[in-house]
Amino acid sequence: MSASLPPGCDCPMAATTSPAGATSNAHPHLVLATTILASSLAFIDGSVVNVGLPAIGHSLGADAAGLSWVVNAYLLPLSALLLLGGAAGDRFGRKRLLLTGIFLFALASALCVAAPSLGWLIAGRVLQGIGAALLMPNSLAILGANFSGEERGRAIGIWAAVGAAAGAIGPLLGGWLIDVVGWRTIFLINLPIAALAFYLGARYLRDKSNPARPALDLAGALLASVGLACLTWGLTVASAESHLGSAAMAAIATGIVTLLFFLRVEKRAGDNAMLPVSLFASHAFTGLNLLTFLLYGALGALLVLVPFVLIKVDGYSATAAGAALLPLPIVIALASSSAGRLAGKIGPRLPLMLGPLIVALGFLLITRIGNGSSYWTTTLPAMLVIALGMAGAVAPLTTAVLASVDADHTGVASGFNSAVARSGGLIATALLGMILASQGTELVTGFHIAGVIAALAALAASACAFFWIRPAGPSSPEE
Q1: What pLDDT score was predicted for residue 324?
Q2: Looking at the structure, do residues 45 and 90 belong to the same domain, yes or no?
């Protein structure tokens, strides 16, 4: 699930679609089905791959760095290109970009199925990430443009519920396929879903391009991708080798410099930038995105490690490891709406302080996993506590992000926040190499240390809410 967030994190991208982009359609239910099927590709794939890491490593002889890249090769283009994918849909047509994304995702999935080596699998994962960066924002924009008022809220709710179900079923189904057939089948299940989504989209979606919109920020997208790639590669190598060598140091430095240059280019581009730097004039916007990075980075790292440790140390089958994660998406899906209503009454500050605190407690409970104890007394309590904390944070976080900027920038703000969440998982996963390379007692010890560090990150996220969100919900963008 590190590669796919709880669906509620992406809902604002649909809710903030400009009314001017609305399109009439005689088949609203088929439009909804198309957006659900397209988004489910990303949700299923993101949640199922973590369960398959031990089997992939054994089959392809992947080392710790290689296993990190199986996850990060998907997260990297998704994080860097998410905003560009949405902007491209606004300019060239959301239907066109959605169908392109579905096609690329299907092609990439076929490449992953047939991958003869780790390098080919990673190449397929990169292409999957590019496809997801195109289909995710445009499926949500299409959803927002084809529904309005109460119908829009209902459609977004159905989309989020089905996405949560896909994220819950994915690890269980994927684990069973891995045990019965093999890890390649976890990518094979994408093909019929993609085929149906492509058919429905090609036949029933109505859309048009808008050449009057500003040109795409290709320079910004390139710099963001190169900067994140260099930083991720350097951190992955340093973590896998347990020291900061000259090559890793050079890559990290190059990544940081490139990302700083990216911010300079975006500042010069002004409102035409992929990421308008003026957004960071809002202290609340900056603090909320730091909160997002810390919270989702910690969550992403541990959701890679938990099934890995359950399989490698406690002897779980892939099916059992997938089932062990079920409480997380189910509880988040069931409890997020209530947390959203509560945040609407009391403001997002208190929920965003308490939610990460509860998540931190859950991360500490994770340190009891890996000693051969019962699932019911170790893994389940930890998953339930983490899920309750995340459920308390998901809806208030998206509400607070939208309130932190003016109405003209809510779309890019929500898209950037979603990208930041995935970037947190990207950076955190890059730091797991030393743990993934360990065996036996060393693996358990490293996993427990990671749990404590994740708890500290969640505490820091809570502190961000305390310092950067106003006690009362403002009626205008926060400064």
Answers
A1: 93
A2: yes
* Pair (397, 254) in one structural domain: no
Contacts of 268 (CB under 8 A, 6+ apart): none
Which among 384, 359, 369 is positioned nearest to 446, based on CA atoms? 369
39 lies in some domain: yes
CATH code of 415's domain? 1.20.1250.20
What per-residue confidence (pLDDT) applies to 9? 65
Residue 299 DSSP one-character state: H
Mark whether 347 and 420 lie in a shared domain. yes
8 A C-beta contact, residue 468 and residue 283: yes
H/E element, 386: helix 379-403
Sign of CA dihedral 28, 31, 35, 41: positive
**Does residue 428 fall inside a structural domain?**
yes
410: containing domain: 7-209+274-468
pLDDT number for residue 474:
44
Residue type, 367: T
Q: How many domains does the chain have?
A: 2
The reply to whether 289 and 325 lie within a common domain is yes
**pLDDT 10s digits, 268-313:** 888 778 888 888 988 899 999 999 999 999 999 988 999 999 999 9
Q: Do 18 and 108 belong together in one domain?
A: yes
Supply the pLDDT for residue 475.
44
**Co-location of 160 and 205 in the same domain:** yes
CA atoms within 13 A on the CB side of 147: 27
pTM check: above 0.85: yes
**Token digits for 248?**
């890793």
Cβ proximity of 435 and 379 under 8 Å? no
- C-alpha 335/C-alpha 392 separation (Å) is 8
Q: How far is CA 8 from CA 191, 408, 456, in A?
A: 25, 21, 24
Residues of the chain where predicted confidence (pLDDT) is lower than 50 = 1-3, 20-21, 473-477
- What residues contact residue 355 under an 8 Å CB cut-off, 6+ apart? 339, 389, 390, 391, 392, 393, 396, 462
| pLDDT at residue 25, rounded to an integer | 62
Alpha-carbon gap, residue 155 to 25, rounded angstroms: 14
Identify the H or E element spanning 80: helix 64-92
Length of the chain: 479
Contact 317, 170 (CB under 8 A): no
Q: Are residues 337 and 434 in the same domain?
A: yes
The pLDDT of residue 2: 45
**Inside any domain, residue 476:** no
Residue 332: the pLDDT is 85
Same domain, 297 and 366: yes
Note the Cα 450 to chain centre separation in Å: 20
Cα torsion angle, 103, 107, 108, 112, sign: positive
Token pair 């140091």: residue: 249
